[in-house]
Amino acid sequence: MNRFTYPLLAFILMLASTSVFAKPVTVTIEGFAFKPATVTLDLGDSITWTNKDTATHNTTADNGEWASANLGKDQSFTRVFKTAGTFAYHCSIHPGMTGKITVRTAEETRVSIGKGIVSGRNPVLPITLDLAGKKAKQVYSGSYIVNAQGSCADCHSCPTYAAGHNPFKGENLQFNAPTYLAGGVQFGPFVSRNLTPNDKGRPAGMTLAQFKNTLRTGHSPNSPGSLLQVMPWPIYGKMSDTDLDAVYAYLSSIPSAVTPAPACANAGQ
After folding, report:
1. Is the dihedral of CA 209, 211, 215, 219 positive or negative?
2. Which of 2-6, 80-84, 111-115 has the lowest mean pLDDT?
3. Separation in Å, CA 167 to CA 53, 170, 175, 176
4. Residue 210, Cα to own-chain centre: how many angstroms?
5. Can you list the positions of beta strands (E) in 91-173?
6. Which backbone phi and psi does 28 adopt, to 5 degrees?
């Protein structure tokens, strides 16, 4: 059936955070230098400076936000960064030793993760996005929402994962690119809709206004007079216009694909 469907609230976007797991970063003090001298972090990440020189060093923020004790050989100092911005620092004993830390905003982190999902050396979604006429950061923000929060591929890709890349079997995650978001997953009498863009570049054949109205009201232009079932539009419809714009921009940029037949029997198959 020509339905825009989703699992029964299996993945609730409203419960997903805009942050990522905090990760530790190591900076070595060696040869009278901070290595690496420039570091980029996400909110909540920490840096541990470890002195490998026989000489005593410390790490001191130029703006006075932190100042470690003097560190002897093999001693360390750790600081968690909870504020976005750029922070220059130095060793107060040896002022010529300097470093810089950039802490991304939550939105910058979303964009970075969204971009990494579809690009890089080993993307988990090996597709080529059409960024012509689009704002790249908005598209990557949409990638984050669709892939890292919404888990749209579970119900709109048949199958969800590439052969040998199902994480629930202990395999390395990779989405199935050829049928990515092309629909074809069975939910009782309903089959998930193809969300890829049509020949006019419209995801699921919808304009932006129709897309937003569908998520806000549950009324799809493809099924007039009835409310969408299975898909949790009452939840997804609570997203901001900014987020829905980003999702639409991302869906407009993915490759078009044909809905596979026969349908997959289960989400995440």
Report:
1. positive
2. 2-6
3. 43, 5, 10, 12
4. 25
5. 98-103
6. -95, 135
Q: DSSP 3-state assignment of 60?
A: strand
Q: How far apart are CA 181 and CA 173, in angstroms?
A: 16
- Whether residue 78 is predicted with pLDDT greater than 80 in this model: the reply is yes
Residue 30 has pLDDT above 80, yes or no: yes
Query: Which secondary structure element, helix H or strand E, spans residue 86, and what is its range?
Result: strand 85-90
Q: Which of 161, 188, 235, 171 is nearest to 11 (CA)?
A: 235
Q: How far is it, in rounded angstroms, from Cα 106 to Cα 176?
A: 28
Amino acid at 97: M
Q: Are 102 and 81 in contact (CB under 8 A)?
A: no
Identify the CA nearest to 80 among candidates 34, 43, 29: 43
The whole-number pLDDT of residue 154 equals 92
Return the higher-pLDDT residue of 262 and 180: 180
Cβ neighbours, 10 Å, residue 89: 26
pLDDT at 11: 37
Of 205, 217, 209, 220, nearest to 245 (Cα)? 209
CA of residue 31 relative to chain centroid, distance: 37
- pLDDT the model gives residue 93: 98
**What is this structure's pTM?**
0.81
CA 130, 134, 140, 141 torsion-angle sign: negative
Beta bridge partners of residue 78, listed in sequence order = 48
For 11, other C-beta atoms within 10 Å of its C-beta total 17
